[in-house]
Amino acid sequence: MNKILTRILVFLAAIVFLTGIIFSILRSKSKTKDALQDSEKILLNQAEFKSFSSQKSKVFTKIGKLRAATKPGKNGKTKIVLITPYIEYSNDQTFYEELDRNLKKMREIILNYFSEQTAEELAKKNEEKINSELLEKLNSILILQKIQRLYFTDFLIL
């Protein structure tokens, strides 16, 4: 009789243990998925963010924060430009992979753009002009599609 009760208790304990493991696995997958989705969102003004949240476009955030030294100005001094660019692109997995493959080239293009100009030249240009010039350079290396928009969450000249 004791052996039967022991076996039943072991069996029930095993069921409870396995149920707990399955529950924790499912819960961690859900949290991981939510965390990945949150990391793709960026803090922009609400109008820009709404355009990103559509099914037709996504945001490429892997470029990260960049630091470039400008060309020396009239006084012979360089300035540091801190930028965090984000790219809006059509919702296409193969184009995302192309962006990911060209990440190093895109960083170089952006850094070279700012290092080829003085701080005074950059200050004279508005953000739209800088965006259009950079978009032209970035799109020149892409084959599958073109980048729709370029945004900066950080743009400081120090």
Nearest-integer average pLDDT: 81
- The arrangement of helices and strands along the chain is HHEEEHHHHE
- Count the DSSP helices: 6
The tally of strands reads 4
Measured by DSSP, the beta-strand proportion falls in 15-25%
Describe the global form.
elongated
Q: Largest sheet, if any?
A: 4 strands, antiparallel
Question: What is the end-to-end distance?
Answer: 82 Å
Topology:
Blueprint: H1 2-40, H2 46-52, E1 57-60, E2 66-69, E3 80-90, H3 93-101, H4 103-115, H5 119-124, H6 127-139, E4 149-157
Antiparallel strand pairs: 1-3, 2-3, 3-4
What does this entry look like structurally?
With 158 residues, this protein is α+β, with helices and mostly antiparallel strands. The chain contains six helices and four strands; from the N terminus they run ααβββααααβ. Strands 1, 2, 3 and 4 form a four-stranded antiparallel sheet that branches. It starts with a helix and ends with a strand. 10% of the residues are buried.
Short descriptors:
single chain, 158 residues, alpha+beta, 4-stranded antiparallel sheet, 4 strands, 55% helix, elongated
Short description:
This protein is of the alpha+beta class and 158 residues long. It has helices at 2-40, 46-52, 93-101, 103-115, 119-124, 127-139; strands at residues 57-60, 66-69, 80-90, 149-157. Strands 1, 2, 3 and 4 form a four-stranded antiparallel beta sheet that branches.
